[in-house]
Design goal:
Layout lengths: L1 E2 L2 E13 L5 E13 L1 E7 L3 E6 L10 H13 L3 E8 L9 H16 L6 H9 L7 H4 L3 E4 L4 E4 L8 E5 L7 H6 L10 H5 L6 H4 L5 H7 L1 H12 L4 E4 L6 E5 L14 E6 L2
Length: 270
C-alpha cells in the first residue's frame, strides 16, 4: 500500500518546563501542510527498508520507519514487510517529516495486518516513538500539549489563505535547539488567540525557538522579515527550525523568485 505522510507547521511553540523524563512541556498549534513524502509498505518474507530521494545524514541509528515497524512487530507478532520511503520533506527543518513517516508506518501496518487498532491506541503507540508522531495519526489541525502527545482538535482557520513555506537548507538538530532554550511558563489562552483575528497572531502565537535559532542563523531572520515586508499577516519559523513560512491574504502574491532554491510550497490552503 502507498501513502503520503505530510509535513506540518507550528504556529507558535511555547517551551513551558523541563520534565523529569528529559522531555519538555510544550504548547503549540500544529497544522498539516500539502508537502509529502511517499511511503510504500508491502508484506514480505523478509524485512527490508529502502530510502530514495533526499539523503538523511548517517548517525548509526535505524530510520524512524524501521523503528516503527520493528516496534509493531515485537508488540503484535506480525510478519515482515518491505518499506520504500521516497523522502521529499527536508530533515532538520522543523516540519516533522520523520515523525510523519513513522506514524504512517504504524497506520500501514495496522491496515496490512488487520489489527483494527483505534486511533487513540495508534496515537499512544506513536507517542512511544517521538513527541510529534501522535499528531500525524490523524493529521488534522490540533493544539498540542504535554510533550506534544496531548492533542485537542481546533478549527481550520487557514482555509482560503496563501501559505508560503521556505527552507534555507540549514540543518537544525532538535537537541541543539532545545539547548538554546530556558523554559518559561506561558499563560496565553492559545485557543482564544487561534480563534481570534489572524492579524493578532504575530504578537501572541510565538515560537520560543525562533529568537535563539535566528541568532545563530541570521538568514532565517532575514527571510522571516522579508515575508513580513511583502505583506505576510503572520510569518515565523516552524518548530525548532530551520523552515519558515508566511501566511498571506489570497489576493497577495509575494515575490519568492529570489528564494526559488528554498521554496517548498506556495499554495492556497483548503
Amino acid at each position: 500500500m502507498i501513502s503520503f505522510p505530510p509535513a506540518k507547521i507550528n504556529l507558535g511553540l511555547s517551551i513551558q518546563a523541563k520534565r523529569s523524563d528529559g522531555y519538555h512541556e510544550i504548547v503549540s498549534v500544529m497544522l498539516p501542510i500539502p508537502l509529502v513524502d511517499i511511503l510504500e509498505v508491502q508484506k514480505s518474507d523478509t524485512f527490508s527498508f529502502v530510502q530514495t530521494g533526499l539523503t538523511l545524514p548517517k548517525d548509526g541509528k535505524l530510520n524512524l520507519c524501521e523503528q516503527a515497524f520493528l516496534f509493531m512487530q515485537e508488540r503484535y507478532s506480525i510478519g515482515n514487510v518491505r518499506i520504500h520511503l521516497r523522502k521529499q520533506i527536508p530533515f532538520g527543518a522543523g516540519l516533522g517529516g520523520g515523525s510523519s513517516d513513522a506514524a504512517y508506518v504504524l497506520k500501514a501496518v495496522d491496515e496490512l495486518f488487520d489489527l483494527n487498532l483505534p486511533s487513540a491506541e495508534l496515537e499512544n503507540l506513536a507517542a512511544q516513538l517521538g513527541s510529534d508522531c501522535p499528531f500525524f495519526i490523524d493529521s488534522k489541525p490540533k493544539l498540542a500539549n504535554g510533550r506534544g502527545e496531548i492533542l485537542s482538535p481546533i478549527s481550520n482557520n487557514l482555509s482560503g489563505y496563501r501559505l508560503v513555506v521556505l527552507n534555507p537548507k540549514i540543518h537544525v538538530s532538535t537537541a541543539f535547539a532545545y539547548a538554546q532554550i530556558q523554559p518559561t511558563r506561558n499563560t496565553t489562552d492559545w485557543i482564544l488567540r487561534w480563534d481570534g483575528p489572524i492579524n493578532e497572531w504575530q504578537d501572541h502565537l510565538i515560537n520560543d525557538f525562533e529568537e535563539p535559532i535566528c541568532g545563530h542563523f541570521p538568514l532565517i531572520a532575514e527571510i522571516i522579515q522579508d515575508l513580513k515586508n511583502q505583506g505576510a499577516i503572520y510569518a515565523a519559523m516552524s518548530g525548532s527550525g530551520s523552515s519558515v513560512f508566511g501566511i498571506f491574504d489570497i489576493k497577495t502574491s509575494p515575490q519568492v523568485k529570489k528564494y526559488q532554491d528554498f521554496l517548498l510550497l506556495n499554495v492556497i490552503m483548503d
